[in-house]
Amino acid sequence: MKQFAEWLSTTPPSVFIQDHNAWVIPTIQSIHIAGIGVVLGSAFFIYLRILGWAGTDQTLRETVNRYGPWLTGALWVMLATGILMVIGEPVRELVTFSFWAKMILVAAMAAAAVRFQRADLEGLPSRRLVRSLAILTFLIWVCIIILGRLIAYDHVWGSWSPATKA
Ligand code: HEM
What we know:
Elements: H1 2-8, H2 12-19, H3 24-51, H4 60-88, H5 90-94, H6 97-118, H7 127-150
The chain binds protoporphyrin IX containing FE.
């Protein structure tokens, strides 16, 4: 992976981002961070409806139809800005434990979000199970945020971190 990351850092798109690092990365990171707000905000309103704590004047389907597109739309923006940050700083991102752990959780959550939006929400199994899944997936979003921040501090994983071996 390190060799691939070092090769990627010599490609013209990566060199362009590195040469304009003063504004390109901060701009991309700012869009990425704004995207976190939309992802978490839209997921939060769906969770509040599932738990029955807010939005009970609407059906779950109406709530998912209202906030679901924001969630998936923001995930596409996160993917695009994330890929640009990887191209711009490939060794910093790819040669870490945090990045890959985060990508596994993001892939799982994106699949769960799409599956939930397409599900027959009126015929869901026990409310208790759906509520437990809502709380579990919310905690996974929080883990994704922590892992995103830890990419810059990957040494915290000690020998698990490829960055400490590089
Ligand atoms: C969809 C695919 C995603 C990719 C490819 C991606 C990739 C990245 C990359 C490369 C960084 C820069 C790390 C650094 O250099 O410090 C980053 C930062 C971060 N990401 Fe993502 N990310 C994705 C989705 C998400 C999602 C869904 C969340 C949260 C809901 C998230 C939360 C964060 C956070 C909190 C940071 C640290 C920002 C900072 O403090 O500068 N990311 N991400």
